[in-house]
Design brief:
By secondary structure, the protein is of the alpha/beta class. The protein has 8 helices and 11 strands. It is about 30% helix and about 15% strand. It has a 7-stranded mixed β-sheet, with helices on both faces. Strands 6-9 form a two-stranded parallel sheet. It has a two-stranded antiparallel sheet with strand order 10-11. Helix 5 runs parallel beside helix 8 and helix 7 packs parallel to helix 8. About 45% of the residues are buried.
Length: about 280
């Protein structure tokens, strides 16, 4: 049996989608081409185009499974549905457009597989990318700066869509967001639990508004509110706290063949201390 045919997948790829008929098949082909034992969990969030039809055609009930919201509930709600159906040991969120490249999965999974990290973010800050607009980039930097100040950490890209972690960690976060505020909620709760986020460089090709970009300035304001709201969040009983990481000598890595800023491409970032009774 080949690695990709393993009945118990190592990675669950969670794919929320809303009216993504133009790119859905391409991203599915790219995900399934990755040499990792994985499953794809598709969730149609009330699309009005052919998104659900394509999902049904591609679903085989085993490696690719499809679920549907009868009405639009928001990206966060679609992610929660997909997470509840996931079976893999590790999960990653994959947007159904072509902004993020599944070829980056092995790079994202390596720190977890080697025992150096439990949580990995793909950073767009140190690698090849195209930007949607100057103000979009500035907004991303603002919410990332707010995260670092509020949670005493050092992230380069809080809003990245590539957040990789064990499924039990993701489930223990008790996620509630229904929209794009899912990204700051995930980040805030991970940091409140004491997880140290390991960042690796990824490629990124931003869409324009005409191509389907859905984020707006309002989502940036919501992200800041979410970060403030969860600054005093107390983990529920049974939340998965960090396991001791395998020792390693370097806090930063430079990966060959990748454009870089000086000598820094990825970093182990120190999160805040876990909450205690005095908080």
């Amino acid at each position: 049996m080949s690695q990709n045919e393993s009945p118990t997948p190592y990675l669950s790829v969670l794919v929320p989608a809303l009216n993504e008929e133009r790119t859905l098949e391409q991203i599915l082909d790219a995900v399934l081409a990755v040499d990792v034992s994985l499953e794809v969990v598709l969730v149609d969030d009330g699309s009005t185009d052919r998104t659900w039809e394509i999902m049904q055609a591609r679903a085989d009930g085993t490696r690719v499974r499809a679920f549907r919201h009868a009405r639009n509930q928001g990206k966060g709600a679609a992610i929660r549905t997909a997470l509840g159906e996931a079976r893999g040991e590790v999960v990653v969120i994959q947007d159904a457009d072509l902004e993020y490249d599944p070829a980056d999965y092995p790079r994202l999974l390596e720190p977890i597989r080697s025992g150096r990290a439990q949580v990995v973010f793909g950073s767009r800050a140190f690698s090849s990318h195209t930007a949607y607009s100057f103000w979009y980039v500035m907004g991303n930097r603002l919410v990332t700066l707010a995260t670092n100040l509020l949670y005493n950490c050092y992230l380069s890209d809080m809003e990245t869509g590539y957040k990789v972690m064990p499924r039990d960690v993701a489930l223990s976060l008790g996620l509630r967001a229904r929209g794009f505020d899912m990204e700051p909620e995930i980040t805030a709760k991970l940091l409140r639990l004491g997880h140290r986020v390991y960042e690796v460089p990824i490629g990124y090709a931003a869409r324009s508004r005409e191509e389907g970009k859905k984020l707006t300035a309002t989502d940036g304001v919501k992200a800041l509110r979410t970060l403030l709201r969860y600054r005093r969040w107390r983990p529920p009983a049974g939340a998965v706290t960090p396991a001791p990481a395998r020792p390693h000598s370097a806090a930063f890595e430079v990966e060959p063949g990748r454009p870089h800023n000086g000598a820094v491409q990825s970093a182990v970032n120190a999160g805040v201390s876990p909450p205690h009774a005095g908080d």
